[in-house]
């Protein structure tokens, strides 16, 4: 996007799997972006998405050099996030990638440095913290609603993937597991609210050495070996001095833990599932009854997904729209590569601590992204 700053940022999508449907459908909501092309390792998958959304199907190599593509939206599987993002940066394209930024912090640092050296913007999911619930929680925190944050808990717990996913094996190998698969949503939200993490302690186990696939499909009633921890309990120390227990497990049938609770010197705050943009934020001031802030009627909080029968808020592409605006305003995007790298470092430290039994220090020099104000959030809409 050069010359006229009012021009839309041309988007080329690499990776036309299920997650691409959300981004493709949501692109029309935002004024600063425009779908131009798509590519996939399967030419048939790219052709299908192209027909559905009126864009051009290209090969990956063609897309990377296409002059109408300003930003590559990397929706490939995590194992190739690094390769695709590096190729796009090398081709002079801005990049926004699905989470995680890469499968190792070392690779993440290379990507952040490459983007900086080339004067390109690098962004990464999750952008859910920019939704209605995340903005409400951030405003309450900045207004001092709970005072100085002292402690908290965050829990992502369930039974895993094999009961619904026909081919779940990859979720249970290095680079997967509950920490890398779902941790980015929880950790990004907490860093957005509390600032950077400086130290991690953890214990990690496998609930089962083998898992049985019960979902319909070619692997039903077969087993596979688990190659990464599936039950992780960690303690996060933030630069601010706050400490939070973060648990991530695929070995839990049922639980009653709230997704995120934060406690401070003046009160407590409860947040909904950070994998969605909406939900109810609740505040208790100095032990008073919970006061609920429902986001159903707020910007990027309305239930819009699944498309046919919406029961949650899903506005993926919001982070890309903010990145497009940041190009005009010459500022870092809120869902930045630096933020995603810090979250990647936390996740890697959790697993390293779980293996060694020792605490792991993390650099805490990240600058939190500024709050997305309501007027600015509204101005991103078409």
Give an overview of the whole structure.
With 382 residues, the protein is an alpha/beta fold. It has ten helices and 17 strands. The strands form three sheets. A nine-stranded mixed β-sheet has the order 16-15-14-13-7-12-11-8-17, with helices on one face. A six-stranded parallel β-sheet has the order 3-2-1-4-5-6, sandwiched between helices. Strand 5, helix 5 and strand 6 form a beta-alpha-beta unit. It is globular and about 55 Å long.
Taken as a percent bin, the fraction of beta residues is 15-25%
Strand arrangement within the widest β-sheet reads 16-15-14-13-7-12-11-8-17
The H/E string reads: EHEHEHEHEHEHEHEEEEEEEEEHHEH
The counted number of beta strands is 17
Write a brief caption for the model:
This protein has 382 residues and is an alpha/beta fold. It contains 10 helices and 17 strands.
Which labels suit this protein?
single chain; 382 residues; alpha/beta; 9-stranded mixed β-sheet; 6-stranded parallel β-sheet; 31% helix; disordered N terminus
Task: Give the arrangement of secondary structure elements.
Layout (H helix, E strand, L loop, with lengths): L8 E6 L3 H9 L6 E7 L3 H11 L2 E2 L2 H6 L5 E4 L6 H10 L3 E4 L7 H14 L3 E3 L7 H11 L6 E9 L19 H18 L2 E9 L4 E3 L10 E3 L5 E8 L4 E7 L10 E5 L2 E5 L8 E6 L5 E4 L23 H12 L7 H20 L3 E2 L12 H6 L3
Parallel strand pairs: 1-2, 1-4, 2-3, 4-5, 5-6, 7-12
Antiparallel strand pairs: 7-13, 8-11, 8-17, 9-10, 11-12, 13-14, 14-15, 15-16
Helix pairs in contact: 4-5, 5-9, 7-9
């Amino acid at each position: 996007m050069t010359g006229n700053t009012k021009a839309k940022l041309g988007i080329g999508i690499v990776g036309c799997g299920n997650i691409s449907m959300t981004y493709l459908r949501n692109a029309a909501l935002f004024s600063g972006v425009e779908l131009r092309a798509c590519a996939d390792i399967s030419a048939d998958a790219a052709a299908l998405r192209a027909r559905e959304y009126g864009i051009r199907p290209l090969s990956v190599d063609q897309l990377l050099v296409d002059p109408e593509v300003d930003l590559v939206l990397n929706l490939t599987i995590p194992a190739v996030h690094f390769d695709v993002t590096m190729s796009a940066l090398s081709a002079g394209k801005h990049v926004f990638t699905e989470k995680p930024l890469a499968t190792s912090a070392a690779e993440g640092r290379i990507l952040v440095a490459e983007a900086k050296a080339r004067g390109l913007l690098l962004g990464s999911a999750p952008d859910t913290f920019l939704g209605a619930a995340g903005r409400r929680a951030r405003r309450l925190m900045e207004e001092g609603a709970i005072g100085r944050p002292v402690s908290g808990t965050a829990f992502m717990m369930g039974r895993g993937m094999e009961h619904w996913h026909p081919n779940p094996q990859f979720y249970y190998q290095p680079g997967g597991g509950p920490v890398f698969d779902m941790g980015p949503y929880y950790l990004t939200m907490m860093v957005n609210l509390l600032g950077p993490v400086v130290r991690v302690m953890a214990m990690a186990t496998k609930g089962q050495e083998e898992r049985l696939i019960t979902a319909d499909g070619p692997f039903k009633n077969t087993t596979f070996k688990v190659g990464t921890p599936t039950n992780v309990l960690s303690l996060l120390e933030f630069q601010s001095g706050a400490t939070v227990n973060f648990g991530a497990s695929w070995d839990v049938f049922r639980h009653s833990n709230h997704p995120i609770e934060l406690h401070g010197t003046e009160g407590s705050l409860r947040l909904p599932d950070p994998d969605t943009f909406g939900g109810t934020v609740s505040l208790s001031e100095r032990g008073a009854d919970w006061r609920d802030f429902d986001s159903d009627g707020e910007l990027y909080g309305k239930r819009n997904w699944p498309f046919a029968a919406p029961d949650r808020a899903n506005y993926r592409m919001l982070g890309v729209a903010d990145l497009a605006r940041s190009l005009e305003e010459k500022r870092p995007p809120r869902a930045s590569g630096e933020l995603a790298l810090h979250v990647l470092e936390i996740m890697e430290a959790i697993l390293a601590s779980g293996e060694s039994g020792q605490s792991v220090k993390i650099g805490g020099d990240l600058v939190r992204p500024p709050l997305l104000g309501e007027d600015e959030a509204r101005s991103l809409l078409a």
